[in-house]
Queue: 2 jobs
Job 1
Amino acid sequence: MTKRSIGVGLISVGWMGRLHSKAYASIRYAYPGASFAPRLVVAADSVQANADHAVDVLGYERATLDYREVLADPEVDVVSICAPNFLHREFALAAAAAGKPFWIEKPTGRDAGETQDIVEAALAADVVTAVGFTYRQAPAVQHARRLIAEGRLGEVTNVKVSMLADYSADPLGAHTWRYETARAGSGVLGDLLSHGIDLATHLVAPVGEVTALTQTVIPERPKPSGATVGHVTASADDPLLPVENEDYASMLVRFAGSRAVGFLEASRVAVGPRSDYALEVYGTEGSLRWTFAAMNELQVCLGRGGDVHGYTTVLAQAGDGDYAHFQPGPGISMGFDDLKTVEAHQFLESVATARQVAPSVADALRAARVVEAAETSAADGAWHLVAAPGSEESPEHAAGMEHTRRLSGQG
């Protein structure tokens, strides 16, 4: 079969850029029947060593220090944007202006306004987009989504999502751009809880109303003496700089058009959890639980009666998301890198078919609007409506949330 060649350009050759590159390369093995074949054309990074790595290790045909050369290259059909948050808007708008479909990591913008700009630019340029909402791609999560959609849990009543990590638990963790509002935007709200918001939305319904609190547990961090990559430890003798955004966030939510309510929390300073990302969904006829630590397992309880009542462990298998593209039968684990390969395939499938398969920047805007409402609530302690994507709060949206409050007995 003759496959359509899709030229790939990469902007930023950090950990995520390297993972995107690996994901593209893995498509040929996981999806041999795909109608397209990615070709790694050119990568850009402002650090020469990273640019060299793109050619010598990742397999790009060439590299550059200027991202504009990637977007101007006629052999580049699509672009991966893997730069820090404060560069997302600039690079995404430039990609859209160049007519290049792009796969970008979350948070897509530092705030909802920047994300709105990216959405509008992509729409105006009519380019396909994809966003790295990785955890929704887990086959067990896709199984959970099917059970919920089929009504197997009955009416969903409440949801819990937790995204607990320890990557910033050490007070000597170096002060980087992640702790500056001007460059990162929010802290753990955008970095981790955006994933939790997407999971809740993907499985149940959009979040319609929020009340939240945040906390900065470690108020100062040492400034490293040299350049850093990822999460590294600095010296206790280095000067301290203030942490400007939140280490911990939690929110109570009401889901739009539903009686369901939820509790979502995230931490980057939890001592104990490494990447303890979990969800629970409860309904009138059953419930389910999933955790990233056991990514290929789903705990399911269906029915309220019987002599034996409890959870059954369901192993991911063919028919659950894209599981069959990676493993021949249930009980064989997939990993995080496989989920990025699913993302890469969905992105290029969206490009090849002109049909949105991957989560798009519109999904990122939906999450960003929830983060925006949570930040406002954390400041004043009140409930806040989540503005509909692409709009401010409208009378129609307010009326819809009033209906939700009446259903839940809150109005």
Note: Residues 361-380 form the longest helix (20 residues).
Job 2
Amino acid sequence: MARLLPVLLALLFCGYVRPISFSLPPNSRKCLREEIHKNVLVTGEYELSEAHNQGQVRLKITDSAGHILYSKEDASKGKFAFTTEEYDMFEVCFDSKLPAGAGRVPDQLVNLIMKHGVEAKNYEEIAKVEKLKPLEVELRRLEDLSESIVNDFAYMKKREEEMRDTNESTNVRVLYFSIFSMCCLMGLATWQVFYLRRFFKAKKLIE
């Protein structure tokens, strides 16, 4: 039972999503970054507080290559969704543009909720389509969550193996480089000895 406790706690807390709130000053840009696995559904909901003469706020979501996954010019309140094609770093940016002559305006409050993987699935809709009972829906959710945790562990194991292989390869290269450096130094020292010997003989300092 003690071994199952961490897994049960993970299953409970993974379903809890906390919104992110931050202030967006006029004519500023704030971005959030997150690493997400391949073939993962990502959903989000955002809302900006109203401000007089604040201008427009643009919302743009891009990957590390600069591909635009979602863009909204006049973002005040809405939702977005996309599915990742590769494991990558994704960036969510809010860009505020204040019109000329607007004067001094207060900051806007941005509330953002992002979900991915199991958290992004709409189990109520799945229950309606497949006609599942509440207990069956909860079991489906726990099954998907368990599968997600197993996949995360498998990914971490794969990364650990890749890092171990990289470390071993680096150690072998460093060893070969050290041997090569020692051989070069020994060769240079031997050449210096013979060169000085010939030089001193030429100067008749030694026989």
Note: The chain has two domains: 17-120, 134-207.
